[in-house]
């Protein structure tokens, strides 16, 4: 699937390059009976899209739609809902100890914490748990709600968010994962997924394949 809409002129240029490659800009202009200047912006668009490759002093080559840049365009369209993972959630009243066990059992990097009504109220990362552990208290008596990072200081994403923008948020906020939320009418959030650096890393590898 391609989202690229070429103009008639751009399609014509692609065809000419495909049939005559390598071909100089001047030659293309000759074949189309236009000036070199008139072609410039179309050639820029086509090389930026990855349809053509320009080699200095040689000319233009045809790369085509099946090339790797096309996958980049597919990636560009991806939404959080396409790749989000299953979130690990805990109730705010659960103990730090219980959450540590859960994180081990489920091989998760963090837990999203829910209030009595099941709405998102916080996040705990592994470092939060380590910090609590070296604090010296009885971990089975400390509620996770006491050590979590709380709403409204939680960075979240929506299922409909573009993967690129969600990734930007991960990087800017310097966290490993973001809860994917659905907003309820009361302004609170239900957690429906997880968007993490691990998920992005896996996607990156998939693109290579
Ligand atoms: P760690 O540093 O433990 O490897 P993170 O970088 O994800 O993991 O977490 C750093 C800090 O940011 C922790 O205190 C954690 O509670 C908090 N945190 C984690 N995820 C979020 C988030 N989505 N929004 C706001 N704060 C977060």
From TrEMBL:
Claim: Iron is one of the keywords in the record: no
Pfam families: CBS, HTH_11
Keyword Magnesium: no
Domain CBS as annotated: residue spans: 78-139, 148-209
Superkingdom as given in the UniProt entry: Bacteria
Key words of the record: CBS domain
InterPro entries: CBS_dom, CBS_dom_sf, Diverse_CBS-Domain, HTH_11, UCP026546_HTH-CBS, WH-like_DNA-bd_sf, WH_DNA-bd_sf
PANTHER family with a match to the protein in the record: CBS DOMAIN-CONTAINING PROTEIN, CBS DOMAIN-CONTAINING PROTEIN CBSX3, MITOCHONDRIAL
Protein name, as recorded: Transcriptional repressor CcpN
Species assigned in the record: Streptococcus pseudoporcinus LQ 940-04
Gene of this entry: ccpN
């Amino acid at each position: 699937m391609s989202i690229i809409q070429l103009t008639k002129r751009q399609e014509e240029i692609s065809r000419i390059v495909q049939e005559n490659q390598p071909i100089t800009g001047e030659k293309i202009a000759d074949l189309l009976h236009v000036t070199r200047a008139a072609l410039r912006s179309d050639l820029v668009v086509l090389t930026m899209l990855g349809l053509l490759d320009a080699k200095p002093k040689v000319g233009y080559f045809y790369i085509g739609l099946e090339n790797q840049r096309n996958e980049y365009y597919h990636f560009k369209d991806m939404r959080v809902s396409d790749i989000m993972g299953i979130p690990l959630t805990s109730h705010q009243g659960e103990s730090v100890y219980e959450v540590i066990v859960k994180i081990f059992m489920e091989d998760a990097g963090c837990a999203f914490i829910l209030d009595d009504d099941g709405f998102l109220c916080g996040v705990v990362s592994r470092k939060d748990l380590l910090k609590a552990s070296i604090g010296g208290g009885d971990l089975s008596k400390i509620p996770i709600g006491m050590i979590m990072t709380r709403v409204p200081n939680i960075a979240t994403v929506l299922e409909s968010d573009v993967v690129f923008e969600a990734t930007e948020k991960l990087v800017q906020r310097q966290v490993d994962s973001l809860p994917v939320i659905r907003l309820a009418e009361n302004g609170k959030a239900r957690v429906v997924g997880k968007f993490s650096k691990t998920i992005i890393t896996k996607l990156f590898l998939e693109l290579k394949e």
